[in-house]
């Protein structure tokens, strides 16, 4: 069995080993490139402050770059007996460069090592999720623009209520995503602090330079308190997953609507054959499995977020091994979120609007409130106009003027606010692009040994 980072030569019980290792050899593969990047920044800092010889630091960075690239390409492996990615990374360094590989762990703990790798991973994932949300929001805006004047009933309590349009309906979900994209900057700010140097939660009695590592990796600041760095395990994962749940809450409503409006009983929407599946027994069936599974993914995300919250909550301060269990639900939730955004971005543009069926459902009763407002414009008090329309509906004499009034205020059927929404979307895209470029520049700086300081 490979020696663990904490091993002191004593034999390990195989059953206990398997239980404590869990699925880390698989889960940590997602963190491996980030672990290599963070380790390279650590090696550069150790060289800068004189805790490593310059040639040792350079050798470590060069070897870590190779391991980083292998991990990105899926060629890095973690053996079950190695316990986790940290052991595998250090073992690979020792195997390839010898003695300098044994020095990489100086002035850090597995605790802040995994904190940093996770933080780097979450930064990357947040930008990817943001980019996916931008694409989906753009698809909704395009749908809203293409169907801005196509009428459909608006519903409350799942009963016909007031006139609406497919444009208003599509615009609602673009707006929801735009709001989440604004909130994403707050999530980013929570991640934008470097935990390395916290060690086991109490710092290290060595002259390390935490600010240097933070600048080198593109963080705007250091996470000052070592104890808080450990207390933050789960807090930052939950912040990201809570954001993903907010996006899912918006999308779940759209998915429910699509499921409902595409039934034969409504007939307002159609799904392309490529987005349906069949029945093993009923030849006529074209099932909306994609819509149903996507809706299920939204609820799955909430469950995974609750799992992270449950694991991280209810613990005293500082580090506890419970935190190891945060990785699997976090990775599963992020994978599910990316898949959800990708699938819906493909579905929205090909959704078939059946305008004739929707128009037939727009009967006179939808215009009850509009007719009351027409009477108000003629001088009646609203409550009197409301009662008059109610009497006309009851005795069958209600005949509204459908063209009398239109909602031309911002957001109404006659003024969806598409230019403003596209402007906000462009700003969100620009922020994501700029932030992604800044991180790419920081990563390149870590590997550039000719660049002595950030």
From TrEMBL:
Q: Which SUPFAM superfamilies match?
A: L-aspartase-like
MF annotations from Gene Ontology = argininosuccinate lyase activity
Q: Which reaction does it catalyse?
A: 2-(N(omega)-L-arginino)succinate = fumarate + L-arginine
Q: Name one GO biological process term.
A: L-arginine biosynthetic process via ornithine
Ranges of residues in domain Fumarate lyase N-terminal: 34-303
| GO cellular component, as recorded | cytosol
Q: Give compartment(s).
A: Cytoplasm
Query: Which pathway or pathways does this protein act in?
Result: Amino-acid biosynthesis; L-arginine biosynthesis; L-arginine from L-ornithine and carbamoyl phosphate: step 3/3
Q: Which family does it belong to?
A: Belongs to the lyase 1 family. Argininosuccinate lyase subfamily.
Q: What's this protein's name?
A: Argininosuccinate lyase
The organism encoding this protein is Myxococcus stipitatus (strain DSM 14675 / JCM 12634 / Mx s8)
Q: Which gene encodes it?
A: argH
């Amino acid at each position: 069995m490979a020696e663990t980072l904490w091993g002191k030569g004593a034999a390990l019980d195989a059953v206990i080993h398997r239980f404590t290792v869990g699925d880390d050899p698989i889960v940590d593969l997602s963190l491996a490139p980030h672990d290599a990047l963070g380790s390279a920044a650590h090696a550069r800092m150790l060289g800068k402050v004189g805790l490593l010889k310059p040639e040792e630091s350079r050798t470590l960075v060069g070897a870590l770059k190779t391991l980083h690239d292998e991990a990105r390409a899926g060629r890095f492996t973690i053996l079950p007996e190695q316990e986790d990615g940290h052991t595998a990374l250090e073992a690979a360094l020792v195997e390839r460069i010898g003695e300098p590989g044994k020095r990489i762990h100086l002035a850090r703990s597995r605790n802040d090592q995994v904190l940093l790798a996770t933080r780097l991973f979450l930064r990357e994932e947040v930008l990817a999720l943001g980019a996916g949300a931008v694409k989906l929001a753009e698809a909704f805006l395009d749908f809203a623009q293409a169907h801005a004047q196509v009428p459909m009933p608006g519903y409350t309590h799942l009963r016909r209520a007031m006139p609406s349009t497919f444009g208003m309906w599509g615009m609602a979900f673009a707006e929801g995503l735009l709001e989440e994209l604004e909130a994403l900057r707050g999530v980013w700010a929570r991640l934008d602090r470097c935990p390395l140097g916290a060690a086991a939660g109490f710092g290290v009695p060595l002259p390390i330079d935490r600010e240097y590592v933070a600048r080198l990796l593109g963080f705007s600041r250091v996470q000052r308190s070592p104890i808080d760095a450990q207390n933050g395990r789960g807090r930052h994962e939950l912040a990201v997953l809570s954001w993903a749940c907010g996006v899912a809450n918006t999308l779940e409503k759209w998915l429910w609507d699509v499921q409902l409006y595409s039934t034969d009983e409504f007939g307002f929407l159609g799904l392309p054959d490529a987005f349906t599946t069949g029945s093993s027994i009923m030849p006529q069936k074209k099932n909306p499995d994609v819509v149903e599974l996507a809706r299920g993914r939204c609820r799955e995300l909430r469950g995974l977020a609750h799992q992270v919250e449950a694991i991280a909550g209810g613990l005293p301060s500082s580090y506890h091994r419970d935190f190891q269990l945060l990785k699997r639900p976090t990775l599963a939730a992020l994978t599910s979120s990316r898949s959800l955004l990708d699938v819906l971005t493909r579905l929205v543009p090909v959704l078939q609007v059946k305008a004739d069926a929707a128009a037939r459902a727009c009967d006179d009763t939808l215009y009850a409130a509009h007719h009351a407002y027409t009477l108000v414009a003629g001088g009646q008090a609203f409550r009197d106009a409301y009662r008059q329309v109610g009497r006309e509906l009851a005795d069958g004499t209600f005949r509204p003027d459908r063209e009398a009034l239109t909602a031309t205020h911002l957001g109404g059927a006659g003024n969806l606010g598409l230019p403003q929404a596209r402007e906000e979307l462009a700003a969100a895209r620009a922020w994501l692009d700029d932030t992604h470029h800044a991180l790419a520049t920081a990563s390149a700086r870590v590997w550039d040994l000719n660049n002595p300081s950030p």
